[in-house]
Amino acid sequence: MNDIYKTRKTLLLRIKDQHNDDAWSEFSQVYNRYLYAIIRRMNINADDADDIVQRIMLKLWKKLPEMTYDEQKSFRTYLRVVTKNEVLQFIDQRKRQMNRDQQTYDDGNDYLSAIRLPEIEQIAKNEWEIYLTNRAFDNLTEDYSEEAIEAFKMCLEGKEVSEVAKAFNLTEKAVYNLRFRMKERFGKEIAVLRRDLE
């Protein structure tokens, strides 16, 4: 398994050293896409989402070294709270700026009105599941061919075994075996990611 999947506890302890560039790079690699996806799902445009992710990472860089690690609490919950607070701060700053500038207020107000905050818990949960699924599939590429992964995805989508077999020129027995082996491995990958990253 890649080094990126060190346990959350180990990674959080390593980033207490703000100058441990390797740890912070690893931390960014693990969580940046997740944070960005949540923010984008809140109807925030790509440029603003990038800025907010950077603000969150800066805040984490400042706060995490002084935090104590508690295995009973979910780090992902903490990320969700920090993300929500940063989005609220972004909206407040943008509104104040628009009030000062008094230009294109209506257009900007429409954009700010479209941002959905009350749903952040559900958005974060959905994006986390997508994130874990994608990471698990990335891990499977170490041991399975792209064709095998695509066949397994078709099975997960509910396609008939005969249809998958035909699409990949396999026997139905081969598809059943592939589906069984990959389903077990995929479940283990998801469990490891949940343990290490949540």
TrEMBL record:
Coiled coil (residue ranges): none
Keywords of this entry: DNA-binding, Sigma factor, Transcription, Transcription regulation
Matches recorded under InterPro entries: RNA_pol_sigma-70-like, RNA_pol_sigma-70_dom, RNA_pol_sigma70_r2, RNA_pol_sigma_r2
Positions of the RNA polymerase sigma-70 region domain: 31-96
GO biological process: DNA-templated transcription initiation
Signal sequence, renumbered to the chain: none
Molecular-function GO terms, alphabetical: DNA binding; sigma factor activity
Keyword Nucleotide-binding carried by entry: no
SUPFAM superfamilies per record: Sigma2 domain of RNA polymerase sigma factors
Pfam families per the UniProt record, alphabetical: Sigma70_r2
Listed NCBIfam families: sigma70-ECF
Protein name: Probable ECF sigma factor
